[in-house]
Amino acid sequence: MRVLGLDVGTKTVGVAVSDEMGWTAQGIETIKINEEKNELGLDRLRELVKMYEVESFVIGLPKNMNGSIGPRGEACQHYAEVVKEQFGLPVIMWDERLSTMAAERLLISADVSRKKRKQVIDKMAAVVILQGYLDSKN
């Protein structure tokens, strides 16, 4: 049972996938999107779903620190609805507060250069989101 984890932004979607046992998350790629033009990277997601035989999605939900949901969270919820409609697979929304900061700390501790961090931060945030979800299930 593979799960695809997504960190949805306005310009990119970080993508991670679980192993077949649902224990670990690995970063795959960052998909370029354009929310304003409704270019959501669904064709590439479709390819990844088929390639990895994905059975469900975990999408990061950026809540405010007080637990409320702001405009970015609403945009992620909308993205989740589109994904659910397009793929007909279960979609789990996962509280992703501070996931990007955690990903940044991981990359800094691995001595990744600032330029390189910028290229992989969304993919790493997807890993943090998906791993948090997987850990909660095991």
From TrEMBL:
Positions of the YqgF/RNase H-like domain: 1-103
A molecular function GO annotation: hydrolase activity, acting on ester bonds
Domain of life of the organism encoding this protein: Bacteria
Enzyme class, broadest EC rank: hydrolase
Pfam families hit by this protein: RuvX (PF03652)
Localization annotation: Cytoplasm
Family according to the record: Belongs to the YqgF HJR family.
Descriptive protein name: Putative pre-16S rRNA nuclease
The species this protein was found in: Priestia taiwanensis
Higher taxonomy: Bacteria, Bacillati, Bacillota, Bacilli, Bacillales
